[in-house]
Design a protein that fits this description.
mainly alpha, Cytochrome Bc1 Complex, Chain D, domain 2, two-stranded antiparallel sheet, binds heme C
């Protein structure tokens, strides 16, 4: 009887140790990936590809697949000085939208864009990585934790 109890107790302890250990491994790889992203000059292809899919679903109807202002209505994202100048501001626009006036590549736009705050931090980072690295844009890298910070600072 005593042996049986101590056996199951050992098993329980082992299971607990294994569980906390595997959780640590997981957290470590997550953190490592984040660090890897920050020190890379370009976002991963995986992130840009995920961003392309999100862009097609959420942004293309106004900003066009080419990122240019085709209808003379929505500001361009391709080679946009406004986008590339201030990364934080661009993340804020994607999350919370924009209204009023803004000058993009020398032209004043007075429109309204609603935010996409339902997208996850990862998704917004992927979107940013896509628009900052498409159509000849050479923007910075956006990480999940940058988006998280901006979302929380509001
Ligand atoms: C309904 C149309 C519409 C949709 C959809 C839309 N936008 Fe916009 N976007 C606008 C308008 C209009 C402005 C300018 C707002 C203003 O004048 O204040 C803008 C401005 C911007 C800007 C800053 C200006 C620039 O050109 O650099 C960025 C960046 C941007 N949008 C990204 C996105 C992204 C990414 C998505 C998809 C998640 C998206 N937009 C979806 C209409 C839209």
């Amino acid at each position: 009887m005593l042996i049986k109890v101590s056996k199951s107790l050992t098993l329980l302890v082992l299971a607990f140790v294994f569980f906390s250990f595997s959780k640590n491994i997981y957290l470590e790889t997550e953190q490592k990936n984040e660090l890897k992203e920050i020190y890379q000059e370009k976002p991963s292809r995986k992130s840009i590809q995920a961003g392309y899919i999100l862009y097609t679903a959420n942004c293309v109807r106004c900003h066009e697949s080419s990122g240019i202002d085709k209808m003379n209505l929505f500001p361009p994202l391709a080679k946009s000085d406004y986008l590339l100048k201030d990364q934080k501001r661009a993340i804020k626009i994607v999350l919370f939208g924009a209204k009023g006036s803004m000058k993009v590549n020398g032209k004043i736009y007075r429109g309204k864009m609603s935010g996409e705050s339902h997208l996850s931090d990862r998704e917004v980072a992927d979107l940013m990585n896509y628009i900052n690295h498409s159509w000849g844009n050479k923007g910075k890298i956006t990480t999940k934790s940058m988006v998280k910070k901006i979302r929380e600072s509001r």
